[in-house]
Amino acid sequence: MALLKPHSLQLPVAPEAIRALKVGTPVLLSGRVHTGRDRFHKYVADGGPLPDGLKIEALFHCGPVVVGTAPDWRVCAAGPTTSIREEPYMARVIERCGVRVIIGKGGMGPSTQAACARFGAVYLQATGGAAQVLAQTIVAVYSVHFLERFGAAEAVWEFEVRNFPAVVTLDATGENLHARIEASSRERLRILREKPDDQGRGRSA
Known about the structure:
Elements: E1 7-10, H1 15-20, E2 26-35, H2 38-45, E3 58-60, E4 65-67, E5 74-77, H3 87-97, E6 101-104, H4 110-119, E7 122-125, H5 131-135, E8 138-145, H6 147-150, E9 156-170, H7 177-194
Helix pairs in contact: 2-3, 3-4
């Protein structure tokens, strides 16, 4: 099967461009991205006040390793964290913060799927285990929020990324590639279990 050509996605992005992205599309993301992990998601979902003017178009599920001091920060590692941990909070975060692009690994569940369809957002699967490589796409660190409250790993860092590689696995129509693959895998497993062995017995017998 031929590989799809990566789609260049520049932030900020028009709503219609987000809705045009389909599952399975590789993208190279450029623009401003904010990080956020468990403590931030719960804080937002619980109604915690946000800094004036904070708008998060792209939210990266990531606890980056950042060294140095402002304004000379340097990101050494920026790998995706497991997104499903944020499933109880993600829909509310999308609504409150204006998130249109979520980046993480492992996919998300039905609540986020519904919110992506409602608000026009997509989920991008980033490569796990490549934190140092992904950090090379970060060309600037602009600011950090909630550093004292949440600590460095859980703070909201604002990065400029250039050609950050990822794949659309949950689109704004509600299509969920992770759920599709899981359903296909379960069906294949069912067939294998029911397939007769050399003695004519079902494997599940």
